[in-house]
Amino acid sequence: MRARPFLTSTPTSWAATTRKAPLPPVENSGVSPDERRVVAVDGVAMVRLLGPQDRLIRAVEARFPDVRVHVRGNEVTLEGERAPVAEATRLVEELVRMTASGHDLDPEGVRESARILQNGGSVSPAEAFGQAILTARGRSVRPKTVGQREYVDAVDTNTIVFGIGPAGTGKTYLAMAKAVQALQRKEVERIILTRPAVEAGERLGYLPGSLTDKIDPYLRPLYDALNEMMDPEIVPKLLAAGTIEVAPLAYMRGRTLNNAFVVLDEAQNTTPEQMKMFLTRLGFGSKMVVTGDITQVDLPTGASGLRLVTRVLDGIEDIHFSRLTSEDVVRHSLVGRIVDAYTEYDQQKQAQHFEREQAREFAHRAERRGGPARLPGDRQPPRA
């Protein structure tokens, strides 16, 4: 496949028209396709639509292996069986629309767009991804899945939001983007980012160095995300002025956080007492976002404050729980499959644990009755 860009810049208006073309035999195959459609693109630079090294259009081909895609000038031709050609055409038209509206697409975005269209919901990919939360250092930060879009919308409409999901779903990154956006819009006076310093109840004494040396590695991911979203030269000034504060969870005790956007990361490693302490720091004019993955609890006792809070606070007005899944993973596509594999493994372990506990309970009951242990479904022995 060969791409021929016909524009070098993106005008303010665009149009994509689709027409059915005559069906001469496909070159070198001797077989006529069932359907051929041509998407004529006007007002969008083809180099943006195709992506670097044609990666975006190749993602379309990978999603629809039975559809042949040809690009010539400002036309994208799709050939093959009627149903997949129709779906691929819808996808290409949606990519044109998203490119024209300023979305920075990547192959993962193409795959997610195809999934949204296939599900047939009322929300289009362009609506699902929405407007950029913020633009910094030449790149925009925006939701990339339907789940992420719902998560971001929940942050806009609720005072406390819990973002729960596996690694790679953008829980913390999007929360921090919303915090930076709120600060830039002067909706809050400061940003507070916190996380449990270590998994073992914040026990730092065994580590060498000062307290700052001990906690800095655990807070480094938050600093890295800040530097991606803001000018790295401005971040130290905001930190020095107290406009942005990055601190371990233990530093929140005894405080009231007014007019602040507060993000608690790695919340699965908080104890129930720590979670209660944190949530009760909420002051006037503030917003809280709590993120974590309940499948990665590192506490020695396994008593996670995040697990408990989903039961205690569920249903309370102005508190929202957003649950992201492997479908919202925006890292390498392999990460989603890894998450699914571990989820299936954990479910099998839970089922086996339940069976063992059930067998132990029946054995205990039988011992108290003085008879043999029988599990549900066992046949009664014949009477003499």
TrEMBL record:
Compartments where found: Cytoplasm
Cross-referenced Pfam families, in alphabetical order? PhoH
Q: Does ATP-binding count among this protein's keywords?
A: yes
Taxonomic lineage: Bacteria, Bacillati, Actinomycetota, Actinomycetes, Micrococcales
Listed GO molecular functions? Answer: ATP binding; nucleic acid binding
Q: Where is the composition biased (Polar residues)?
A: 7-16
Q: Where is this region: Disordered?
A: 1-32, 349-384
Q: Which UniProt keywords apply?
A: ATP-binding, Cytoplasm, Nucleotide-binding
Stretches of Basic and acidic residues bias are at 352-384
Question: What family is this protein classified in?
Answer: Belongs to the PhoH family.
**The protein, known as:** PhoH-like protein
- What range(s) does the K Homology domain occupy? 33-97
Would I find Signal among this entry's keywords?
no
InterPro entries noted in UniProt: KH_dom, P-loop_NTPase, PhoH, PhoH2-like
- Listed GO cellular component terms? cytosol
